[in-house]
């Protein structure tokens, strides 16, 4: 069984999803047209009776993946998974570095901007990296609700007590007395915790400093769990550059787990409550029991199937529709360092030249097939008359083992996509990846 195709009538009202074969016939006979690709939706060009059944939408919300499932009675009509972007913070940090180094480079004049601090203008403001993921969770639910006839919405959310996760015995006033209780600064707490002793040479006294176990540039946090005490003799530029401190910390010090995911899920839960007050919400423990009763393997889309409230499954697709966002533009106007093969930094490059969108009829993110093979993927960049191709999992597709580039003359274009990669893959392939 294949995933169903979403259908709307000629007035824009949602109908029951149909089988892919029926959708192909309707499109072939010019009785329908394609109106959406994510998810794939057709619109009828003639009148229909509009017969509808009870239908449910299950959503496994998350920080990295969103599981989606549409069920009706004892059938799973659609199952899919959305992979969210995790590079927003890194890209913003890169942009910040470019802007801060402008005074040392010859670049075009940019008019000064003032009073553009969005955080002070908006209520309930979120950092861009968090807002991106929250908005995608909400928008994908709205996308499916818009092509389903009065679906019952079921969403799994997470609720975490970070203080309890750190200290299971905490209670009462303990919630008001954090790690820094009784200390004026973070440095004062770290020095006292380590007994004013260098954690590398084990010597007391002298000039002591706090050092990050995992560098901020590698994703380390500024919390007390990621800081240790070192003396001035060990905390040197040479030790930093040679990685001695980093290696010692990795071997000797156990870093506590990050709570970014738990914090995000707490934020997302409140936003989903406000965005979908009509939804039925549940938590992961209940989903685990439901999935076990249905005898389903652990995955985001199977969680969504269980969340939808289906009691037994007689028909279920043997494939999963994967969605992944594609970044089409390189927004930086200039480069801070020279690329490989250049002797000087690229300070005079123009935006259009650095964002090649199409070559010889092919465009960025086109879904293509390499001739005389079964390899299919998306164009992720151009190099003269060649291009780079990746599959939905981010792996390069090549013809030879020596080169990543594939000549455009050796490709057949299957379909055009905007900024979302979409691929329907077998469940067995999904489990392998």
Briefly characterize the structure.
With 433 residues, the protein is an alpha+beta fold. The chain has helices spanning 20-28, 88-100, 118-121, 128-145, 162-166, 186-193, 237-242, 244-252, 260-275, 284-293, 300-307, 351-354, 427-432; strands at residues 5-8, 14-18, 32-37, 40-44, 56-60, 65-72, 75-83, 152-156, 208-212, 227-231, 280-282, 319-325, 358-359, 362-363, 367-370, 376-383, 386-390, 406-407, 411-415, 420-426.
Structure description:
It contains 13 helices and 20 strands. It is α+β, with helices and mostly antiparallel strands and 433 residues long. The chain has four domains: 40 residues; 135 residues, Nucleotidyltransferase, domain 5 (2-Layer Sandwich), CATH 3.30.420; 81 residues, DNA Binding (I), subunit A (Orthogonal Bundle); 60 residues, SH3 type barrels (Roll). β15 and β16 form a beta hairpin. The radius of gyration is 27 Å and the shape is globular. The mean pLDDT is 85.
CATH class of the largest domain: Alpha Beta
* C-alpha Rg (nearest Å): 27 Å
Could you tell me the strand content as a percent range?
15-25%
Q: What is the strand arrangement across the widest sheet?
A: 11-8-5-6-7-12-20
Task: Give the helix tally.
Answer: 13
Largest sheet: 7 strands, mixed
Structural class: alpha+beta
Alpha carbon gap, first and last residue: 22 Å
């Amino acid at each position: 069984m294949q995933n169903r195709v979403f259908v709307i009538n000629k007035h824009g009202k949602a109908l029951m999803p149909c089988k892919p074969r029926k959708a192909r016939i309707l499109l072939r006979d010019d009785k329908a047209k394609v109106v959406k690709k994510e998810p794939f939706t057709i619109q009828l060009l003639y009148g229909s009776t509009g017969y509808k059944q009870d239908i449910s939408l299950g959503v496994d919300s998350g920080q990295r993946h969103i599981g989606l499932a549409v069920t009706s009675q004892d059938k799973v009509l659609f199952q899919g998974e959305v992979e969210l972007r995790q590079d927003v913070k890194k890209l913003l940090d890169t942009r910040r570095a470019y802007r801060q180094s402008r005074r040392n480079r010859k670049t075009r004049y940019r008019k000064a901007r003032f009073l553009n601090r969005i955080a002070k203008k908006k209520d309930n403001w979120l950092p861009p990296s968090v807002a991106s993921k929250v908005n995608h969770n909400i928008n994908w639910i709205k996308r499916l609700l818009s092509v389903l006839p009065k679906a019952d919405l079921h969403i799994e959310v997470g609720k975490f007590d970070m203080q309890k996760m750190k200290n299971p015995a905490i209670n009462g006033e303990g919630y008001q007395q954090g790690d820094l209780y009784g200390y004026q600064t973070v440095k004062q707490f770290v020095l006292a915790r380590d007994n004013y002793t260098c954690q590398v040479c084990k010597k007391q006294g002298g000039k002591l400093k706090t050092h990050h176990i995992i560098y901020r540039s590698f994703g380390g946090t500024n919390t007390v769990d990621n800081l240790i005490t070192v003396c001035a003799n060990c905390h040197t530029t040479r030790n930093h550059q040679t990685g001695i401190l980093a290696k010692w910390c990795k071997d000797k010090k156990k870093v506590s787990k990050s709570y970014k995911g738990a914090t995000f899920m707490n934020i997302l839960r409140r936003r989903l409550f406000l965005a979908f007050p009509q939804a039925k919400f549940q938590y992961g423990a209940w989903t685990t029991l439901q999935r076990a009763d249905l005898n389903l393997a652990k995955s985001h889309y199977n969680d969504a199937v269980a969340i939808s409230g289906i009691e037994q499954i007689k028909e279920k697709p043997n494939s999963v529709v994967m969605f992944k966002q594609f970044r089409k533009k390189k927004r930086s106007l200039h480069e801070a360092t020279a690329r490989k093969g250049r002797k000087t930094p690229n300070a005079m490059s123009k935006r259009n030249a650095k964002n090649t969108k199409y070559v010889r009829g092919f465009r960025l993110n086109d879904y293509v097939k390499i001739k005389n093979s079964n390899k299919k993927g998306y164009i992720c960049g151009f190099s003269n008359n060649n291009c780079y191709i990746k599959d939905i999992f981010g792996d390069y597709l090549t013809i030879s083992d020596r080169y990543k580039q594939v000549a455009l003359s050796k490709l057949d274009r299957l379909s055009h996509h905007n900024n979302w990669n979409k691929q329907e893959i077998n469940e067995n392939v999904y489990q392998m990846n």
